[in-house]
């Protein structure tokens, strides 16, 4: 069930499902909580899964003034506090993985473990050129459908374009009753373009799994590998044949992988406790 909750930083729309150890899902650019539908459905038999709309996405209003990744991490911390979650397995993808990095750095006690999907710690020239194109494409595309069809070339596999998956996602996005405005897309994009935690990642203490899609052109695996190399003890894995959002394209495989990681974290905690 979804609900607008009041936090100490304002109202934030939250979806919660299931019972068990707490999992916080942090979405990326433009994606509302529903982007995690396959995890809300597929993991809630074992976990209490919480997803939320970032500011300027879905039902959470766009703030006044410039946005920042540390500011969005404060929103994530506020969600955990408002829901009285002392610590959660935090999973973020793309821009949401940047938010998750800042959350782990700024509020380490709230982060039981980290899964960083399609992640990066510092943007490069290719990334800045790509996202610069996205910025003006949102404004100048002939219509929303054309914008989505172009944008999704960076997001999903050729397989998903061929088998109708992307067509379905386009239709679902167009039918979503809380569309993101061009202004919100652009303002949310900017802080991710300048995200830089590279020299601070060594301070992260949470057990970390970094996942990259073999075919991801939006956040190429070289960027994820760089993140894993900087976080002490982090594990880096490439998902063969996958692109930017495998949690949507191959949810059963993805859910099984993160579930296995969280079980490992629990086993490690038990060994420490004993």
UniProtKB/TrEMBL annotation:
Domain of life: Bacteria
InterPro entries associated with the record: AB_hydrolase (IPR050471), AB_hydrolase_1 (IPR000073), AB_hydrolase_fold (IPR029058)
Occurrences of domain AB hydrolase-1 (ranges): 23-246
Keyword Hydrolase: yes
UniProtKB keywords: Hydrolase
GO molecular function terms attached to this record: hydrolase activity
Gene3D superfamilies (alphabetical): alpha/beta hydrolase
Protein's name in the database: Alpha/beta fold hydrolase
Organism (species): Streptomyces phyllanthi
């Amino acid at each position: 069930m979804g609900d607008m909750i009041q936090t100490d930083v304002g109202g934030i729309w939250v979806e919660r499902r299931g019972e068990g150890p707490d999992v916080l899902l942090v979405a990326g650019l433009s994606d509302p909580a529903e982007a995690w539908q396959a995890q809300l459905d597929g993991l809630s038999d074992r976990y209490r899964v919480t997803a939320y709309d970032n500011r300027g996405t879905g039902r959470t209003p766009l703030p006044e003034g410039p946005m920042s990744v540390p500011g969005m991490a404060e929103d994530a911390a506020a969600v955990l506090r408002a829901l009285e979650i002392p610590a959660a397995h935090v999973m973020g993808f793309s821009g949401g993985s940047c938010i998750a990095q800042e959350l782990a750095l700024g509020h380490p006690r709230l982060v039981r473990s980290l899964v960083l999907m399609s992640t990066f710690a510092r943007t490069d020239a290719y990334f800045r050129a790509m996202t610069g194109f996205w910025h003006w494409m949102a404004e100048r595309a002939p219509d929303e459908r054309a914008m989505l069809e172009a944008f999704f070339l960076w997001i999903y596999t050729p397989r998903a374009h061929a088998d109708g998956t992307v067509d379905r996602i386009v239709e679902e996005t167009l039918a979503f009753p809380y569309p993101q405005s061009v202004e919100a897309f652009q303002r949310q994009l900017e802080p991710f373009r300048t995200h830089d935690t590279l020299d601070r990642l060594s301070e992260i203490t949470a057990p970390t799994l970094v996942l990259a899609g073999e075919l991801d052109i939006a956040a190429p695996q070289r960027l994820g590998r760089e993140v894993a190399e900087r976080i002490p003890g982090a594990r880096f894995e490439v998902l063969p044949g996958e692109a930017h959002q495998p949690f949507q394209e191959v949810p059963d495989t993805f859910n099984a992988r993160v579930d296995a990681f969280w079980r490992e974290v629990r086993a490690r905690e038990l060994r420490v406790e004993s």
